[in-house]
Amino acid sequence: MTEPDAPSRADATRARLLAAAAAAFAERGFHGTTTRDIAAAAGMSPAAVYVHYKSKEQLLHQLSKVGHQRIIDAIDAVDDAADTPADRLARAVRAFASHHATAHTSVRVVNYELDALTEEHRAEIGALRREITRRMRAIVDAGVADGSFDTPDPRMATIAVLSSGIDIGRWYHDGGEITPERIGDFYADLALRTVGATTLDTQQ
To answer: What are 51-83's pLDDT values in tens digits?
Structure first.
């Protein structure tokens, strides 16, 4: 007789471990965190951790892979090539920035602990990061091509937009008066100003 809930229990356990690892890495740094720290935060024994992840580096790799894919998915969910470049950029950056505020603990880890990954894993995550840049750059290039953006350096403009959004994970904290939604709107406007948009009247 099969146990249909067995995979879901395993998935829930892995999710709990990832959340515990993200919190521990954010607080202590990757090198300052032990497997025992992660296990304790997840309410498990250190031995139980190894059932699901062979090492804390594997935990970091999974966090990084999932985290970067979520950003790609968030951009894809709001981007429509049929819209104007200004609307596309505003929506993409709004999603990007608000995600970095909402998931600030995990994004801080996946953006600032890259050097702790193995060479193979770092290359894999690097490819995901380049894909995020490619998507945003394509929107900027579309605006330059149709004259709705006026920037002398689309590449640097794209880097500036992404870098400012990534930094949200470093300084944002829950419970303040600045909400993820407010951050998303502010950074969307900032992105349009960065690329020299001829109009700042974009859909929310």
So the answer is: 889 999 999 999 999 999 999 999 999 999 999
CA 115 centroid distance within chain: 17
Both tokens of residue 13?
A: 């356990």
Q: Are 150 and 87 in contact (CB under 8 A)?
A: no
Beta pairing partners, 149:
197
Show the tokens assigned to 16: 């709990």
Interatomic CA distance for residues 134 and 190, integer angstroms: 19
Two structure tokens written together for 94: 């709004």
Q: What is d(CA 94, CA 152) in angstroms, rounded to the nearest whole number? A: 23
| Chain segment 115-151, per-residue pLDDT in tens | 999 999 999 999 999 999 999 999 999 999 999 999 9
Yes or no: say if 149 and 140 are a contact pair by the CB < 8 Å rule: yes
Q: Please state the pTM of the whole predicted model.
A: 0.88
